[in-house]
Amino acid sequence: MKKLIIALAAMVVLFGENLSETFVTFSGKILNPNGNEIIIQGKEFTKKIELLGDGSFSDTLRVPEKQYFYSFFDGNEYTSLFLRNGYNLHLTLNTKEFDESIRYTGKGSVNNNYLARKYLFQEQVFSDTIFILQQRAFEDKIVQIEKEFIDLLENIQGIDTNLVAGEQKSRNQLIQRIKQEYNRKILMGETLAEGMDSPKFSNYENYNGKTTSLDDLQGQYVYIDIWATWCKPCKAEIPFLKKLEEKYLEKKITFVSISVDSGKDHNIWKEMVAEKELPGIQLFADKDWNSEFIKNYLVNSIPRFILIDPGGKIISADAPRPSQGEIITILLNQLEI
Question: Which of 67, 85, 97, 287 could share a disulfide with 291, CB 3.0–4.6 Å?
């Protein structure tokens, strides 16, 4: 009888182990969550997981075979996941920092911590001063960046071969994007140089339900923030933008924010303006990214800031961000606003 019980127990353990290989166990805790649920999304796969009151969660996901890459959404914030059935993955993050705070433990953590570090480094590359380098220095910097990405991958042991397989293609695409952005900056210097007439926007819907055009603001300096409700770096600028506007409240400058949210997110835009008490003139672009003003300023990433003089001439087509503190203050003070 004793032998039978031991045999049955062994079968239960073995069966349990085999069963756990057929799904992902995903748990974690989110500080300052943006909603009451998170979403895991992949090609033909979506799973919503409810958050408890303390921001913790736990659930199982049966992900399709040979589909490894997924997006993790907390409200409008997101990151990437690498998932395989059999993983027992635990995530912690703080939405106040998001990418900088992501940490994984458990089975599958090596692959996902690598992705988190890679995307954080990628974000740093695009916020670097690389785009103001001279051609030769830029080319040297590209070589350095590519080496750093390769080293990041090679210095981590135990990464899934299915993840490694696509990294060279991903790296090449990133380098191509950086080169395209560099060339775009050069084109901006030729077509959107200081002193040129600014492209105009006309009859953009404002938060009050009326319309505003750039011509309405003649006689004022105009500092424009191009943003969207889903854009994390855009929202990070909000506290700095509020302080900047407060500092120049009595000066001859108007602060304008233009949302490039899609039409379906119009209500989300309205709600966020109210919720965050966004100051200045709040506008909704007529055709999101395809709006003429947006295209004429060669906007392909946000946030983007533009500074225009009282006569409608460009001062800076890619002005410093409010978070750059002293830099934007020095620029505005030089104008004797």
Answer: 287
